[in-house]
Amino acid sequence: MTTALLDVAANTRLPDSLRKVEIRRQADEVAPQRDMWIDRNRFFYQEDYRYMRFLVPSGLRVLELGCGTGRLLAELRPSRGVGIDFSSKMVEIGRQRHPELEFYEGDVEDPEFMSGVNGPFDVIVMTDTIGSLDDCEATLAGLHHLCTADTRVIIVYYSRLWEPILNVASAVGLKQPNLQQNALSTDDIGNLLKLADFEVIKREWRQLIPRRLFGIGTLINRYIAPIAVIRRACIRNYIVARSTRVSRKPPRSATVLVPCRNERGNIEGIVRRLPQFCEDIEIIFVEGHSKDGTLDEIYRVIDAYPEHDIKVFVQDGKGKGDAVRKGFDHARGDVLIILDADMTVPPESLPKFFQALASGKGEFVNGTRLVYPMEKEAMRFLNLTANQVFSSIFTWLLNQRFTDTLCGTKVLLRKHYREIEANRTYFGDFDPFGDFDLIFGAAKLNLKVIEVPVRYASRTFGVTQISRFSHGWLLLRMVLFAFRKLKAF
């Protein structure tokens, strides 16, 4: 009943305002000069396109609403690119200059027209278009039929703080003239998305200086503009969201990956304590050249528990990151779960992780050990303090909340891992932990992150393989690496 009422509301359209009629007329008038205005402000648009290419990998199905002459759509190099604009002149120029793309003249606020658009799409982009709409909520609500569970809606707009400067720039001929636009902050756009049944995944602010200024603008935009307080003054705002109406096919199988080195005393306990949280569970041990007989113990447990699907692989290199990649390469489950062999995160907590993913609440599920009181000696004071500090930093870097980046338990769909793997060249082979390879990859794919609190237990067998100082130095390196790859580019 609720969905039906929402659909009726989305399809109830008021007549176009006089402002919108004038915007359409002005768009037709300025269409022949549109690319000239882009070239005149080349630095601003190059920076804008650079970040959009970061958000939208090439080879996807992309729909741009309010596409103008198609410059941005062409920059994204889609496998199928569709542009819609209500200006016939803009569409005509787009077809001439980008014959590899599809252009359609139409009003994105017209539900009848939009119902005829052939989807779905991987990405739906609205660049400044939201400023010209008469009914933003209804327009957004009309996009669900073009979405899958993995579709991302990206809304790009300008900061209202810049409006006086932009008005002066238009008056002196430095910027394309525009009529009055909707007064929308990122919070306002986020609220409209929520009203239209979209969930905001992340927000970003870029370009404090929209001019090159002999390289000064580049330096400020790379290293000053991303600072937490300062970034709200940037001219360009980006919001990434996903549909909450689209149904998600529940996963039916899971692979629990257990990297293990010198963990002989924990192997049987993992198998014995692991709940049957879905109908088909595969357990993969990746053994890291132990010296305590861990590999022999795994083979013994495989023979002792024939009712379980247990496999073992010996990793080729060193480190947990190498073990995770080895195990995931052989995993067959729809859902991939990492469980540390020390069982400081109890195997009994895995149903919560699986449910968080299967329900669609999150697409990358991260454990957090910093909510419930820990057992004595579970985590040293310096480790705890470092985790808290670095988690705040990574929350800023990744634009999604992380309270415990180094919790070993992480869960994601196998298909999303394959996409992280395919895009790994952007970050390279940089992470000996294995945690940040997945975290940064999930951020690059715009996956929705959710955290599951766990009660962190102390070890009952073996000794920790975490070195406070050498691994603390590696964490600092991860921060600098993430800043360069996620902010200062």
Question: How does this structure look, described?
Answer:
The chain is of the alpha/beta class and 489 residues long. 39% of the residues lie in helices and 17% in strands. The protein has 19 helices and 14 strands. The protein has helices at residues 2-10, 18-30, 34-40, 42-55, 71-75, 88-97, 111-115, 136-141, 163-171, 186-195, 216-223, 267-273, 294-304, 320-330, 350-358, 381-398, 414-422, 435-444, 468-487; strands at residues 61-65, 80-85, 102-105, 123-127, 152-158, 198-206, 236-243, 253-260, 280-287, 309-314, 335-338, 364-368, 410-413, 449-453. The strands form two sheets. A seven-stranded mixed β-sheet has the order 3-2-1-4-5-7-6, with helices on both faces. A seven-stranded mixed β-sheet has the order 10-9-8-11-13-12-14, with helices on both faces. Helix 13 (294-304) links the parallel strand 9 (280-287) and strand 10 (309-314). Helix 16 (381-398) runs parallel beside helix 19 (468-487) and helix 17 (414-422) crosses helix 18 (435-444). It starts with a helix and ends with a helix.
Brief sketch in words of this structure:
The protein has 19 helices and 14 strands.
